[in-house]
Amino acid sequence: MREQNPWPTPAWLGEPSPDAAVEPEVERFSLPAQEVPREMWFPEKPAARPRPAKRKAPVSLAIAMPAVVFFALLSAFFSWVVSEPLWLAVGHSSTGMATVSRCVGSGISQRCIGELDGTRVTLLGVTAKQATTGSKIEVRRVGEHSDRAFAGGLFLRWFAGLIMILACGAGIAIVTGVHRMHRRDRLAALSTSLAAPLLVLVGFLAAVF
């Protein structure tokens, strides 16, 4: 009598084992399909970092110093020219009749000398008709101590002079390299450059008062 084998026949012998457990089928794992925009197919290169701005070199002292001295002297000249007409324009003046003694030149270059209250004065603003020896003209001057008397309008004299003084301040700002400074320092430097000639004007106004 044949004994029954309690062990199942191995599968490698080619015979299926009836007792072998059936393995469950496992589905393949896959990610869900997603649409990718065309722009993301080939990623762009990262933007290059901006290079820091190069700081401009300061203006050479050999150039800046003579230029500053030049503009300072020029502003002092215009301050002297405009100081008395500016006082006369605001009403600080005394009026008198001057007698023309002698005139030379013509037009802008005309210069006249006359007598006012027994003192010799330089007459400015005298017209061609008034530039005759012995003619009397009404003039104004800052005070009895002034040796310059003005005839006619004064607007162009003080206004043009004031513009030139401000132009000297702008010239100082340019030659000292204000435009090369940082933005927060630029305004302070520009204000200082413009204020310096105006302070010279204030000094001349105080001197001729």
Give descriptors for this structure.
209 residues, transmembrane, single chain, alpha+beta
What does this molecule look like?
- The protein is an alpha+beta fold.
- It has one domain.
- It is 36% helix and 15% strand.
- It is built from three helices and five strands.
- It has a five-stranded mixed β-sheet with strand order 4-1-2-3-5, with helices on one face.
- Helix 1 (61-89) packs antiparallel against helix 2 (155-175) and helix 1 (61-89) crosses helix 3 (183-208).
- The radius of gyration is 48 Å and the shape is rod-shaped.
- The chain starts with 60 loop residues before the first helix and ends with a helix.
Described by the principal axes of the CA atoms, the overall outline is rod-shaped
Helix content: 25-40%
Largest sheet, in brief, is:
5 strands, mixed
Order of helices and strands: HEEEEEHH
Mean pLDDT: 80
* Beta-strand proportion: 15-25%
Distance between the termini: 151 Å
Radius of gyration: 48 Å
Query: How many independent structural domains?
Result: 1
Adjacency order of strands in the biggest sheet = 4-1-2-3-5
Which class of secondary structure composition applies to the elements?
A: alpha+beta
SS summary, helix count = 3
Number of strands: 5
Unreliable stretches (pLDDT < 50, length at least 5) are none
Keywords: Membrane, Transmembrane, Transmembrane helix
